[in-house]
Structures are given as structure tokens and as C-alpha cells.
Amino acid sequence: MHVIDCLQYCNWSEKIFQQMREGGVDAVHVTIAYHENFREMVANVEQWNRWFERYPELIFQGRTGDDVRRARREGRTAIFFGFQNPSPIEDDIGLVEICHTLGARFMQLTYNNQSLLATGCYEEEDTGLTRMGRTVVAEMNRVGLVVDMSHSAERSTLEAIEFSTRPIAITHANPAFWHPARRNKSDEVLRALAESGGMLGFSLYPHHLKDKSDCTLDGFCEMIARTAEMMGPERIGIGTDLCQDQPDSIVEWMRVGRWTKEVDYGEGSAANAGFPPMPEWFTDNRHFGNVADGLAAQGFAAAEIEGIMGENWLAFFDAGFGVANG
Amino acid sequence: MHVIDCLQYCNWSEKIFQQMREGGVDAVHVTIAYHENFREMVANVEQWNRWFERYPELIFQGRTGDDVRRARREGRTAIFFGFQNPSPIEDDIGLVEICHTLGARFMQLTYNNQSLLATGCYEEEDTGLTRMGRTVVAEMNRVGLVVDMSHSAERSTLEAIEFSTRPIAITHANPAFWHPARRNKSDEVLRALAESGGMLGFSLYPHHLKDKSDCTLDGFCEMIARTAEMMGPERIGIGTDLCQDQPDSIVEWMRVGRWTKEVDYGEGSAANAGFPPMPEWFTDNRHFGNVADGLAAQGFAAAEIEGIMGENWLAFFDAGFGVANG
What we know:
The first copy, chain A, is α/β, with parallel strands linked by helices and 326 residues long. Chain A has helices at 14-22, 38-54, 65-74, 94-101, 131-143, 154-163, 187-195, 217-231, 248-256, 288-297, 302-320, and strands spanning 4-8, 27-33, 59-61, 77-83, 104-108, 146-148, 169-170, 199-202, 236-238.
């Protein structure tokens, strides 16, 4: 079995890379841009290159599905880059291929706000894919950069699923039927995603969970079982949104970047502005076994559990990260 | 036999790519930066990506020696990127690996002027490798970005040969014993280059030639024979410096960039400020056969001719472009 977490944004350290190994995590999709422009994103790649150079026995950069298999063979964790915002491509479609060459494998068309490409989930009006959005999705399809709509609004998400010629992903969100957070997804989105061959990664970020930090493992895994009935057990995986060891200043920056001088609480509130505590059964990379156990308790078959814990993402990586028809 | 030209900077067009095919040229090292900063160099990669997308039957991006073999098999030309100045890495050592990831395989430590790394051949004082120069050479050695000293001054070049743990290249220059141009290289440099396993690419740019545009094929090939006696026939290849179809405004920009408001004539003069005409026996990529014929007329053995026309560069590419000890 391969274990893949399709979204983390930790305050990276040797300790966390070591915990990935202790947890048997073969691959992690890490966010390397929230609001960064191209050059700032490149500086983040440079930082990752230093970690790869410093901790080669723990991590290396992943570019293909085969790198996940290599990670398992070699007892290391493959790190895949992604953007939660299209800010790194600025207004330049040529940067899509450049970013793919640098290793980017997922790019959200929006974070919470309107972008040059589509509408984020916190806007009042959702106008769907923009003119540039359509050209960029076509270019992402060509080079093998996966469209991620985790933070995007409903219409934009449905249009991305429809317009993209290759399956897209929602790397980290949960169904709205279980917990109606603004970031969680409607039945219509989930069905369209599944029908198009896309993937949903279940989030463990407390704002996306029923009962938030008090969410139980049983409740979480029961939700997965209900989603599997709707989407099929091959169209789902894990995308924890783990933000381990980050100071609260980071979630503030994630929400406001440089776009406002005001405070924006996003999924939080004035009374609860920082990172919420993770559920006690999942606080770091050593706890993926708890999720697998919870799935078994729900009656999932062994092959289904393997699929949800990583094999489904691995098949998606195999199909999604290369050039079209390549 | 593989044919490799280790330096061109043409005004690229389908016509020129087609001429590469007509001339049986398997690989070309093309300059993608003279004065460009990082972001400007990336824009040049974007332009190349569009050519690769538009003319896939003629060209593709080369990254390894095996791509030269693939080019020969598939009847295409592999294009390798290089910089004639370290300006794309700015003052950031992390950009060395980023540039290598984007495909850069050669980087001159200087163009004609002092750089952050070393001294160019037009400076009055040559202080050798700078502090940053030594750290960057070590990083280039680590990732497989080849040091190129074609435009650098004497002491800097000798220090680069000495300090670099992997063989370096002078991709496009000729021996000063034949034509004492400022850019041509001393016997001491050529001997040190050969002893360290480095490579010299013979230039066909008229300012580097005896009798300039009137240089004869015989004279050029006789010079190669004399250099082969000094360096060994495995340490030499071709680096034409072909600048086909470029307007004279380009050679002006190559010389002055943004560093001066004055006119600098470089290797030219006020009376001869533009691109000089190429020798009639080598005006474009269809004429490599003339050079091979000229080498045969000098008495080179068939295997030596194959080496000079491409196999020597290919062996150097194989050894030089990957990670150290990788």
C-alpha cells in the first residue's frame, strides 16, 4: 500500500520529515504558494531544494507517479509541489509550462478571492472561468499541471470540471452535506467531479469538519463511507490540509496576503482567529494509521482502504502529471 | 556520427531549424541570456517552449547526452540552453539549481566585463574568481551546470579550471597562437583546459579568425590540426558562434546591454561596428560537411573527425550534465 497526503502546508523541519517516515507516508503534495508571484514562488522552490540537499535520506522531489513507488522502495517521502492560487503564473500563460518544469503538479485556479482565472469561494458573485482561465486550463491540460478547485466557488468549479479535458482535483475539502462550510462541496460538484474521473481529498482541517476540533474518527470515516457511496471508492483520497507547527501569523497571511489592509477571518472568526487545534486522533504524519483503522471499522474492504489511503491518488498522479497523450 | 555545435545565437526561425535538419546537426547549444536577469531569461525559455511546441518535427529541448542520441534516431535537433553571462542567477546561489532544472547546461562566469563571479576579457585588471564565484562554481559542479569561460580573462579562466572539480568548457573561441584576438586563448589556458579534461569549441565568428571573413577552410582546419597536437584530438569540438539573420542592433546590445550609455565596439570598431560576414564556406547550419571535409584534407583519421564534429562534445555532455557522482 502507498500512503499519499494530497495537501499539507507545515512549518517544515527535520522533525516533520522524520514523522512522515514514521507514519509511512510515501508522498505529500505540499503548498509552495498562496500569494507569491513567480519570483517569490521560485524562492520557495530554492528553500525546498536546500531541504532536499540537507535531508536526502528522508525526502526528495517527486515529479511522477513512479516517484511515489521509488519513495516506497527507498524508504523516503516524495514531495510534490502545488500552488493554492495562480499568482505564480502572474498574467503570463508561458509560465504554466515553466512552473510545471520546476515541478508544480497542482494549481488552484483561485484561492478565496476572484483571480485572473476564476472565482473564489468567498466572493459574492461567481462568474465562472474567465477568458484567461479557459486558456490557462487548456495549457495546464497540455503540460500536465492538475487543476485544483479546493478553494473555488460553485459555478467556477463546475465549469472547470466541464471545460478541462483531463480530470481535475479538489485536493482538500469535504462534502457540504456533512458540514456546510463555505469551502466544502455540494453534491452537484462531487457528482460532476466523480463522473469526470476527478478526485476529492478529504480534509482534516477543523473548519472543514463536523464538530470541528472535536470531530470523531468514527464521524469522519462515516462521512467518507457516505461520500464513497456517492462518488465511488476510487474517486476519493486524503488531503489533510495539515498546517503543523505554523504560528497563527501564517493563517492570517494565508487569508489576507497583500490584497487588503483589513483583517479577514476567512473560515475563522474574531473570537477564533488562529489555527484551530487538530482532532486528537490526527495531529501529525504519524497518525495515518488511525484513518486506515477508522475506514476498516466502517466496513471498507482492504482494497478500498488501500485506494483511499493512497492508491487512488497514485493512479491519478500516473494519469495526470505527464504531457497530454504522452 | 553525431554533429554538435556548441554555440549559436541566431535570429531563430523555422528556416534555421530546417537548415539544422538539412545539415544533419543533432544538437546545438543556444544562448538564451547575455544580459537578462532571471525573469527575463525565463521569458526567453518561454519563447523557446513555443518553438518546441510549434516545430516538434524539427527541434526539442535537450537535457542529457542521450537526448543527442534520441535526436539522431528521430531525425530532429536537440536544443541545449546556455548563458553567456551569470546575470540570470542574479546574486542568488539558489538560482543555479533552478536554472539547471529549467534546462541550462552551460553558464559563462563572465561576459566581457567583470561579473559577480569573475573577470571578463575586456577588463584591465583580472582578479580571478570572486568569493561568490567560488561558491557558484561549487554549486554548478554539484548540479551539473558546466562552467564556460569563453569570454573570460586569463587569470579567471585558469582559476576556474583549477577550482572546478569537474571539467569546464570554452564553448566558442580559438587559440591566440593562430589569431591573437582578445577573446582567443593562450597556450597556457589551452594546455590547462586539456589536462583537466575540458573542451574547446572552435569559433567561426570572423573576429576570432585569421583573416576574419576571408579566412580559408584550409587555414581554419590547419589551425585545428595544430591545436589537436597541443590539446589532443579528444579535447576539441565545434562552437561556431553562428549569429545568422541577426540585425546589427543585436551585436550592439550584446556589447552594451544596460551597463553603459556609451558605444562599445567590443571586437569590432567604429568602421566595422556590425556583424561581420561569415566565411563563404560556413554561413549556416547546412555547411558542417565542409568542416568535416576540411578536417579530412588535413589528414585527420575518420574517428578523429567524428570526435571533433560531435562525439567529443557528446562524451562531455554525458559526463557533465548530471548531478555530481550521480
